[in-house]
Amino acid sequence: MPQSATKTVLIVDDSKFFRTATERTLTKAGYTVITAADGEQGLRVACEKTPNLILLDMLLPKLDGPSVLHQLKADSKTRKIPVLVLTSLSQRNEEKLVAAGAAAFLEKERLAKDFQPLLQAIAHLLP
Question: Is the C-alpha dihedral spanning 75, 79, 83, 87 positive or negative?
């Protein structure tokens, strides 16, 4: 059984299509996946389940991604969880997001046809 089988990934994204496709890909790769459809739910689930990694969309209903990231990094229970930011925003925001505590940054457009960059980023963040 791959080591990743014990790793839990939380996907926080308002796109049901993206959540489902990503969940399928990660489950096939051996990860346990939990999901949240908005920022408030994402924060709640992160605190309750303490996943090993969080995939966080930036454009979310109820509480936007930057606010979720800020609150995750301000909470001692979730501070150490790596956050991989997934966004449709351009790369010029990467420095700002990394300064705010994001462990890595991927543009969603790159994942439209190929989840390999995501799997590689996760493998790097969850050795």
Answer: positive
Give the separation between CA 13 and CA 106, rounded to whole angstroms. 14
Q: What pTM, to 2 d.p., does this model score? A: 0.91
Answer yes or no: are the C-beta atoms of 77 and 48 closer than 8 Å. no
Superfamily of the domain at 3-125: Response regulator (3.40.50.2300)
What is the per-residue pLDDT across 3-41, written as a single tens digit (0 to 9) for each?
Answer: 444 899 999 999 999 999 999 999 999 999 999 999 999
Instruction: Using alpha carbons, select from 25, 6, 22, 4 the residue that is nearest to residue 14.
Output: 22
Q: Which three-class secondary structure state does DSSP give residue 84?
A: strand
